[in-house]
Specification:
Layout: H1 2-13, H2 25-46, E1 48-53, E2 60-65, E3 76-81, H3 98-103, E4 107-111, H4 121-138, E5 143-149, H5 151-157, E6 174-180, H6 187-190, H7 195-198, H8 202-208, H9 210-215, E7 225-226, E8 229-230, H10 235-248, E9 251-252, E10 255-256, H11 261-266, H12 271-278
């Protein structure tokens, strides 16, 4: 019985839709999906956009900018990685942060990666890193920020463990990470309903959990990291995580406790809010 209750508790913690005080679980998910789709459609109609391949034909990103950009582009490109518990959403829903970033003279690349069950987490991390490398190869003068929400926040954080010896010129161009409700420890994910599709292995939990990986040593490249605190954050877990991160990395976290995880994310599409988390990096 205790094991069954523990499973229920973990599933609850892995279900941010059940934490929202605005709506019920199904309503908040439907509202989030409708909002990101609406904002993405607006960005597609308002801004220049083009697809950039970073590997196989299905490994692509949509690049949003004010006008076509060339290899001489020297502003910032934000690589945005969608959430969805590594098994939902896509690039087609991920252009919603573009408008305020493009309006400020920068660009946004919305990433398509292979979600579960077709893809495993090892592949997703490799795809995120490959997309970053491709952006730098195509636009070598641009500064780069990697940002993501929830599952995408975990993928963004794992950029720190790219093999930098193979990409020496990239180190000076990657200026920061933004993790919105990012999952820092995959241990509870492996024990939850989410693992039915994700099928995490013990090795993946150890190697691809930013918090666990950090405890084994400082990453090869330390970057400014921003971790906004939202209304549904487990404060004890969050504060413990921050103690570890501040021990090794430059870290800034914004208090956004008036928003739940979903509203925190869709706010990135609003001009008067979006530049707050990006401001120190763009």
């Amino acid at each position: 019985r205790k094991m069954a209750q523990a499973k229920v508790d973990i599933d609850y913690q892995m279900s941010p839709s059940r934490w929202s005080h605005r709506m019920g679980p199904d309503e908040v998910i439907n509202d989030h999906c409708a909002t990101v789709k609406k904002l993405t459609d607006e960005a597609l109609s308002r801004h220049h956009h083009t697809e950039l391949c970073y590997g196989k034909p299905n490994e692509i990103m949509t690049l949003y900018s004010e006008q076509p950009i060339t290899a001489e582009f020297d502003r910032t490109i934000a690589l945005w990685i969608h959430g969805g518990m590594w098994q939902a959403l896509s690039m087609a829903d991920s252009g919603f942060p573009a408008s305020p970033i493009v309006a400020a003279g920068h660009a946004l690349a919305a990433l398509e990666y292979t979600i579960a069950p077709e893809g495993n987490l090892t592949l997703m991390v490799a795809q995120t890193q490959a997309a970053l490398v491709q952006l730098h190869s195509t636009y070598p003068q641009a500064s780069l920020v990697v940002a993501g929400h929830s599952a995408g926040g975990q993928l963004a954080m794992m950029v720190q463990w790219l093999d930098w010896s193979k990409h020496p010129t990239l180190t000076s161009k990657l200026v920061g990470l933004l993790s919105l409700s990012g999952v820092l420890d995959l241990t509870p994910v492996q024990q939850s309903y989410a693992n039915e599709s994700l099928q995490l292995t013990p090795t993946e939990v150890a190697q691809l959990s930013p918090l666990l990986r950090l405890k084994t040593g400082i990453p090869p490249l330390t970057l400014p990291v921003e971790l906004p605190l939202h209304a549904c954050t487990d404060h004890e877990t969050f504060c413990n995580s921050m103690v570890w991160y501040r021990s090794y990395l430059p870290l800034r976290n914004m208090n956004q406790t008036r928003f739940d995880s979903f509203r925190l994310t869709t706010n990135t599409g609003l001009r008067n809010w979006a530049m707050q988390p990006f401001a120190c990096m763009l």
